Amino acid sequence: MRIARAIRSEMEGEEGQALFERIGAFLLDQRLAPTPTNYAFVHRLFTEPDDALARAVELITERGVRITPRDIQTLTADHGPEESQQCHVDLKARAEGLVARTQMQVEGFADMVTAMRAETADFGRDLAASAEAMSTGSDAPKGSDGVVRITAAMLDRIRVAEEKLESTTREANDLREKLEEARDNARRDPLTQLPNRRAFEEAFAAQEASGGRMCVAVCDIDHFKSVNDRFGHAVGDRVLRVIADALSECCRGHLVTRYGGEEFAILFTNVPIETARAVLEHARGTVQTKRYKLRDNDAPLGEITFSAGLTPVEPGEMHQTAFHRADRLLYLAKNEGRNQVKMGISDLGNSRR
């Protein structure tokens, strides 16, 4: 068969055969069906071991937790080539623009400092020469007129130096603001304006370092794909923003992030898990009771709900471990009917079905 010949051609040679066997062993070990999607996913892991996707999978499996089809779907969406490439292009463009502006301002600052040093040196030499002339009486400025001229020259150069320093200070402040803006943009989701995954991970690390108590919740909009399929991505984006606003309002005081796709992650700090659950239940009820309409014709959009998994973070636990435990609880909530919050403490292992 043509397909069989193509596969054999791809796998010719010892390296190809070894890769094929490694992929097969991984699929068998993870109890994954040898579907094209799963094969392509694992193929990427072994051919791009330094990729963010491979590192994410390694963090999941390092404690004996198996990858599930839902993990593959989520990770592929988060680390897909098109999304990663576009994100890389956007970040690269912003970074290059910032670097270019920074370089110009730094070069301008360096030129100004060089000019000021030259003027200061010239001024110093002039003062030394004038002082020597006045002390020896040779070619010295006569009387107070000479002192006035020297003082006027000194004041004029000081004024020029102050103006340049003021201009440089303004440029430095402008650069500082641009850097702060770039730093904030790197940690914010452009659609919902929520903090993103990077912000979640940094906040988790900071809280862990301080020894604070944490709970992690993972929320996912129910039947979100059907919203996009029926009404289009523009309506889907509006739904994402509505959920983001509701979670931010109901979980005020805690970090609400858009983790990826239709998934939100919430970091509860210094509250008991029962309190975190009550907050989540309030948010879930708030979203459920709202009546959503299409902007164009006021037609009802239908009920919008979300499911959530909530778990406490154990001392010294990595954020990936806690997140995936909460994600498995989320999957359990969806399996049992959606529109509910599932709470758990111990690692669920392979509870997904």
Structural features, described:
- The protein is an alpha+beta fold and 353 residues long.
- 65% of the residues lie in helices and 9% in strands.
- The protein is elongated, with a radius of gyration of 31 Å.
- The two termini are 35 Å apart.
Class of secondary structure makeup: alpha+beta
Helix content: 55-70%
How would you describe the shape?
Answer: elongated
Main sheet record: 5 strands, mixed
Mean pLDDT: 78
Low-pLDDT residue intervals, each spanning 5 or more residues: 1-11, 82-88, 347-353
Strands of the widest sheet, in order across it, are 2-3-1-4-5
Q: What is the CA–CA distance across the termini?
A: 35 Å
Question: How large, in whole angstroms, is the Cα Rg?
Answer: 31 Å
What is the total tally of β strands? 5
How much of the polypeptide forms β-strand, as a percent range?
Answer: 5-15%
Number of helices: 12
Helices and strands, in order, run as HHHHHHHHEHHEEHEHE
Summarize the model shown.
This protein is of the alpha+beta class and about 350 residues long.
